[in-house]
Write a structure and sequence with these properties.
With about 240 residues, the protein is α+β, with helices and mostly antiparallel strands. The protein has one domain: Roll (Thiol Ester Dehydrase, Chain A), CATH 3.10.129.10. The chain contains 7 helices and 7 strands. A 7-stranded antiparallel sheet has the order 1-2-3-5-6-7-4. About 5% of the residues have low confidence. It binds ligand 3IX. Ligand 3IX binds next to helix 6, strand 4 and strand 7.
Amino acid sequence: MLRRCARLLRTTGALCGPKRGRSFSSEVLHVDHSLPNPSWNEDMRLLFDQFMKKSEDGSWKRLPSYKYNPTERIEDVKIFFPDAKLLKEQMSQAQLFPRSLGEGVGFEYAMFHNHVEDRTVCIFQGGPHLQGAPGFLHGGAIATMIDSTLGMCAILTGGIAMTANLNINFRRPIPLCSVVVINCQLDRVEGRKLFVSCNVRSMDEKTLYSEATSTFVKLDPKKKIDIRASGAFYTNLQ
Ligand SMILES: CCCCC/C=C\C/C=C\C/C=C\C/C=C/CCCC(=O)SCCNC(=O)CCNC(=O)[C@H](O)C(C)(C)COP(=O)(O)OP(=O)(O)OC[C@H]1O[C@@H](n2cnc3c(N)ncnc32)[C@H](O)[C@@H]1OP(=O)(O)O
């Protein structure tokens, strides 16, 4: 496993150190990171191909994923924000956390959604920069992917919502650089509350790594979100 991680670090160039500066070119904006790249191991590719096959009849759909929140989504979210200009800047400049690390060293994942069954599946290969206990994934990294997958499931089935509550049971440690499957479903809807749950299993489904339940709350258009509070963020970056 450690050898596999070392190979990953070499192929992705992570040992060369961090790159300086930021690029906001449209080329960077439009790279879909939920497609196979050289850092994906065989298991990841196999699962990806299996889900692409399942997507052929339209029951499953691959969810594209970018470093930035796609500004096409702005129509869906702008009713919640009083300042549309600031929102647009935020969505196109700030990076989505799970896509903010270099290729292969952090979160490699692809999600698929089934609209009929209200289910979202994420295939996830956690790279060497997500280490917690030696040789295993950090719990926060696991929580990030669980939250992201549950979030997609909630948003795609119920509309724009935020995580209000997240409970995770970590049953077994997840080996670094292994591939796991996060299986999410919408359990029920009560008013603005969307109850979702998931399990995280090994590729052969024999090992149950984690289980989680979560409540997402659909945003209320009457309650505006003021992102001016993150003004310091822009000052520091520029
Ligand atoms: C705008 C964000 C979304 C934008 C998405 C845009 C595009 C999507 C594109 C790509 C998506 C990419 C990734 C998608 C995945 C994302 C996953 C990440 C999601 C997050 O990482 S997100 C960050 C962490 N998240 C927060 O930062 C939330 C902080 N929080 C709040 O902002 C408020 O708290 C809020 C809005 C949650 C509710 O506030 P509110 O004022 O609208 O609602 P209110 O309090 O009135 O509650 C209404 C009913 O929910 C019940 N309720 C409330 N809180 C509860 C709790 N904790 N447990 C159980 N029930 C709860 C009440 O009991 C009441 O229930 P009842 O109706 O029965 O009385």
